[in-house]
Amino acid sequence: MAGFIQELLEKRAGEQFPLHEAHLNTQMVRVLRTIGFERNYVEAREQYLFDAAGDRYLDLLAGFGAFAVGRNHPKVVAALREVLDADLPSLVQMDVSLLSGLLAEEVLATTPGLDKVFFANSGAEAVEAALKFARYATRRSGVVYCDRGYHGLTFGALSANGDDIFQDGFGPLLPGFARVPFNDLEALERALAGRDVAAFVVEPIQGHGVFMPDADYLPEAARLCRKYGTLFIADEIQTGLGRTGKMWAVEHWGVEPDMITMAKALSGGFVPVGAVALRKDAFDAVFSNMVRAPVHGSTFAKNNLAMAAGLATLRVLREEDLVGNAARLGESILQRFRDMATEFEFLHEVRGKGMMQALVFGPPKSTKLKISWKLLEAAQPGLYCQMITIPLFKKHRILSQTAGHGINVVKFLPPLTLTESDADWLLGSVREVVADTHRGTGAVWDLGKTLAGHALKIRGGRS
Asked: pLDDT band at 441, cuts 50/70/90?
């Protein structure tokens, strides 16, 4: 007999869009309707979504990376059911739990040089904790972050956000935060030289745009941090836990940071969980005596469901060699995209590592296509990419996204469970859609005109 949640899902099926329009984010509903992404998804398995019509979609967003081990992984589900069935005490608070200790042990086995873990509820909360720990441990107030960087939307994390669209209108933000260009070591050294900076926080590969570091950037940034007494925080919330073909992206450059923030994939996509792994001296500076034992915490952070989800996820990553799959298949996909770039003048560059992939589009050389490009860019920068992501979804049933505001970059962030047949599905679909844009006419350019019209109306205040 179905429970009340199942009854609700069946009785109210298909009402999600009107409910969100009425009670939640109306503008997000408008966006989804405008680009034709309205679907009634009813099931999810591995890297696939299924709608009420029975169509299967290849999910290359993976919940912004949360579903690294695939959706509804049976081993993670089984672990959560075990916890629910066991009637375990959770969040006793005046106690310490076994599962959180075990998960901390497992996390630290993957992070050489780091000795302690602080658990949180999300990536933004993990970043907030890391910034607090850095300030207390160094007795400095400054924080340096990178242009285009993204670390979350709570106030401390937002103050370290390198994209103005997220900051505009929410100021004044926290004092003491300074932005430097990514990949600019001279600018970083100037920012650190005053010896008043507590932390440099950086994504090893920037999520918004999938911007790659120069070969010497992260190692030299770590060296500069050591030179000036600044703590190096690697934000691996999106790049970590196997996404790039290494457990942690910093491993590609041989960097050992003072702290690593993580979240998203750590939960298996089920129960929100974030964490900071850090050096013992920084941790102990904050929790320096019994009076200070409760100076930072989070009510739900070490709940049994979250800890079990993390333990199960790490086990799946190991047992199914998903990090190895991300390295092998991910690099194969990237190389095939690079080969494709030699055929199409709109496709300028391919960026990424492992299962973090980006296609960078730019102005074509031929006159007719160049005029069309300029018209799209005049209406709204980055609009061309919607002519890629929308047909990929509507015609080829591939869910993807643009990689940032106002840039012509399409991003793929698939589950690490992706298969060779999925790769063929992706590559063939992208080839067809990009080829369509090179014809200069047809349905895809009709779509471009429609999108440009919407963009101009919004810009003119007639939305």
From this structure: low
